[in-house]
Amino acid sequence: MTDLPEPSGAAIAAPGGATPTAPSTRGGGGGLGRYIVVRALLIVPTVFILVTVVFFAMRATGDPITAALGGRLTPAQLQERIEAAGYDRPLLVQYIEYLGRVLTGDFGSTISDNRPVTEVLLTYGGATLELAFYALIVAFLVGIPLGLLAAARRDRPADAALRLFAILCYATPVFFAGLLLKLVFAVWLDLLPVAGRASTSTELQLAFLPDATGIYLIDAIRTGSSEAIADVLQHAVLPSIALGLLTAGVFLRLVRTNVIGTLAMDYVDAARSRGVSESRLVRTHAWRPALIPIITVIGLQIALLLGGAVLTETTFEWRGLGFQLAEYLQARDFVAVQGIVALLAVIVALTNFVVDVVAALIDPRVRY
Amino acid sequence: MSDIVRPARRPLADRLPVVRDLRRAVGLQRGMLIAGLVITAVFLLTALLAPLLAPYGFDQLRADGEAFGAQRPPSAEHLLGTTVGGYDVLSRVLWGAQTAVLVIVVAIVLSIIAGVLLGLVSGYLGGWLDRILVVVCDAIYAFPSLLLAIVMSIVISGGQSSLWGGLLAAAISITVVFIPQYFRVVRSEVVRVKSEAFVESARVLGAPSGRIMLRSVLPNATRTLPLIVTLNASEAILTLAGLGFLGFGIEPTAAAEWGYDLNKALSDVTSGIWWTSLFPGLAIVLAVLGITLVGESLNDLADPRLRGRRRAGVSSGAVAETSIAPAAAASTASGEDDHR
Q1: What CATH architecture applies to the domain B12-308?
Q2: Which residues make Cβ contacts (< 8 Å) with residue B208, sequence separation at least 6?
């Protein structure tokens, strides 16, 4: 997630046209390098604000120990643990201490099962990443071709049907889509597994793999067992579709709108006047510029995907961060919740940064 | 709305948001708008008439001294079957509409008040307050809205859920998610409007800032609000259902909530019991679909590039459309009825 594309390079300068050999680092009103630095600095307040909001929000209900263990310990025991953890000190002191620890990458330990939050994040982050990645693939495969089709058939029945499909994608909550998919493909047709990330035997096989990545597909490939790979992929199909369709609808609308926009531009008119057919106009002239906004929107989609991942993972018992978050929420373990949410804030801020930089690389007009 | 500073008014039908759009729409767009309005009307009527329509109460477990029984398939007594908790599915679906409408109304009213006020003050006064509010709102806006709503619902109700407590907690959680949207749109409009001649003349005449903001700027900065309201209403239903699905909704004895029912239906699906999940889910889809159709149509009609086909002066094609549903309004400025 942190590996940025190199800002120099001929392919990037090429859209500018004239001088593909000269990487632009200093332009008239601030070059790409400057843009990246300024944009990177903007991550800091974003993360800071979110961490602060979450910290004070979670503490507004009282100390985390009472919340998690309230009914199970005597008041004296509770008091003892609260003091041991330092939750009896002024909130501001705790906040500053918390900020300091977050800066060093320490998000505290969960109360319910007493694990470092960072460890929880590392263990389950891979699963969520994997799911989000599959879902993005589904979204691309479904959204972009259908969006192009809708634009080419504008205002005709195919367009109407596709627009309705896009709205349905948005209107269907991921968990309901998941339930329906489960019902049809897992229970009635019995084609795919009902839930989980792999069957028990594969889980065991992967668990004993030395330095497992937590991303099951990679781990399964490393075992070299084709059964394990097939098993892992089969488990991923339904959750990926459930989560992917949500974003597919957004992509479809976006591609349609932007292709319609570019189809009205002068150079497309020029091509049309030379007798290029409408479908060829879409295929060769209009679609490429229309894809740029999609890159920007992926940044916003990451937030949507992460929110959707919580629901999808709960629906399919996909043991990732979202599933874990839901478990901790049920257990009222607010230290864990706070840690996971803070980490997600960092991820969202970082992806938005990467997306903005990529957009700036592609479209020089963005750089300021 | 009644305060537009212009003597010559267009006819009423041209100024009411939805009615004006309905008259302007043609072909497919008109069909979408009408379909959306019909579904939305049915949804609202169901909410209003739920006590009359529903055969049983949303928390009713027995009739004539006899328990309904759990997970009964659809039958004459229970048209859509019963849930794992022994409630009547049809009744809970109908009552659920009422819960959804209540939450939407409270959430939207609260977020409009807060968002418009903040946007107005921030955009008009500018300066440090403006910059801080913009950064804070951008940070909140970028964050997954469902997670934010969860955090807020913990804050508000400690995760507990009583009748009005649960409703209010859900509504306020959703409000916090929406405020940045209203803030951004209103602020950008205010920044645009405040440099107009009529605002400057009001300032020269010595009108106090508060008066200028309320009388001159605000009425001219709200034209995209109906659009965001419709888009937010559908998002509110989804967020409410998401909260309910994760167990932060409203207890079944307090009110019927579709997301909660779907959560309880999760294990039913594995054993092939379809009626407990299908109907509450369809209710969500239909409600969101209706409102989104209205919102989409309004969005397209507000965008000269998408309204109808080939109208005069389609020259704004270079503007990249990067907005997804809720943010759409922000980029729909520079329409043809540009602030007269």
Answers
A1: Orthogonal Bundle (1.10)
A2: none
